[in-house]
Amino acid sequence: MLYDKHGPALVAYACSFVADAAAAEDVVHEVFLRLLSAEIRTPDVPVAYVYRAVRNAALNARRSGQRNVQLDANNSVFERRDGNREAALALQHALAELPEEQREVVVMRVWSGMTLEEVAAATAAPLNTVASRYRYALEKLRERLRPYERTENRARENGK
Amino acid sequence: MENKRDKFEEYLSEFQPRRPRALPEPAVGRQVWMRRLAAAATIAIALASSLWFVGKKNEWSGKELVARNPAAIPETNSEPQPLSLLPLTQLAFENPAQLDVELARASRRELPDFRGSESTLRVLAKE
Q: Is A57 on the interface with B (CB under 8 A)?
């Protein structure tokens, strides 16, 4: 089901608009409830449609005067098996700083498991444009997450 | 470069976004029921329309057959009874008037056979 497959990625996506994991979860939940209650007619490309719906719902939630919650480690939308909350939070910040179209591509590709062709179809953008957005986004994220990545790589090497 | 990007993608995928809470059961159930209902309605409509179409088709083909060959209309009310000699002879002895009625009725359905040596037409022609 769409909710099981894309739900977590959509929460991550929504979180970059509302800056609060719980609010992001609410937004995704609300969009799916409306989908299920047939208030919304699902068009041909449901994934793209759901991403658009989540984006709009998240922006509405932000506009409707929801308080801006300061991010803390407990409020992170990402989790890691090793429990590194600091890195998870850094990723969330880094994602939120990306331009919207880059963020969308990264979330769809990495956490929704879509190919770049699928992302291009979903976002109605040329494949080359999508590939460029993805490349730029990864570069920015790598730059932001470099300290954490290095630390983890070092820890892995020491563990071997 | 590609290798570096792949490694970083792998690193990113180690971060798992929070799984949203489950959708309430009634919503899921209602959707399932709506789907089932829609599927049942579709099947019923398809079945009804195909039955109607088959019925209509038979009707059309019957009309077409009649239009092409009016003789193809089956006679339902009066089945032709072949004239057999024995009951007619018996009737001639017992009730000649009734024989005339029977022969008159039969003559409307069957032409007299003129090919036989004793046929009515041959006898009339001789006279």
A: no
DSSP 8-state assignment for residue B70: G
ipTM over 0.95: no
DSSP B116: S
Report the number of distinct structural domains present in chain B. Answer: 2
Query: Which residue in the set A25, A77, A81 is minimally distant from B21, CB to CB?
Result: A25
3-class SS at B89? Answer: helix
CB pairs under 8 A between A and B: 75
What's the topology of domain A2-159? Arc Repressor Mutant, subunit A (1.10.10)
Rounded-to-integer distance, Cα A141 and Cα A72, Å:
19
Q: How many CA atoms lie within 13 A of B56 on its CB side?
A: 6
Contacts 24+ apart (CB under 8 A), A64-69: A66/A18, A66/A20, A66/A23, A68/A19, A68/A20, A69/A19, A69/A20, A69/A22, A69/A23
The DSSP symbol for B12 reads: H
The rounded distance, in Å, linking the Cα atoms of B96 and B11 is 115
- CA closest to A30 among chain B residues: B23
The stretches in chain A having pLDDT less than 50 are none
Pairwise CB contact (< 8 Å): A149 & B8: yes
**Domain with B89 in it:** 85-126
Contacts (Cβ under 8 Å, ≥6 apart) of A29: B20, B21, B23
Using only the alpha carbons of chain A, give its radius of gyration.
Answer: 16
Q: Is the pLDDT of residue B88 over 60?
A: yes
Per-residue three-class SS string for A28-63: HHHHHHHHHCCCCCCCCCHHHHHHHHHHHHHHHHHH
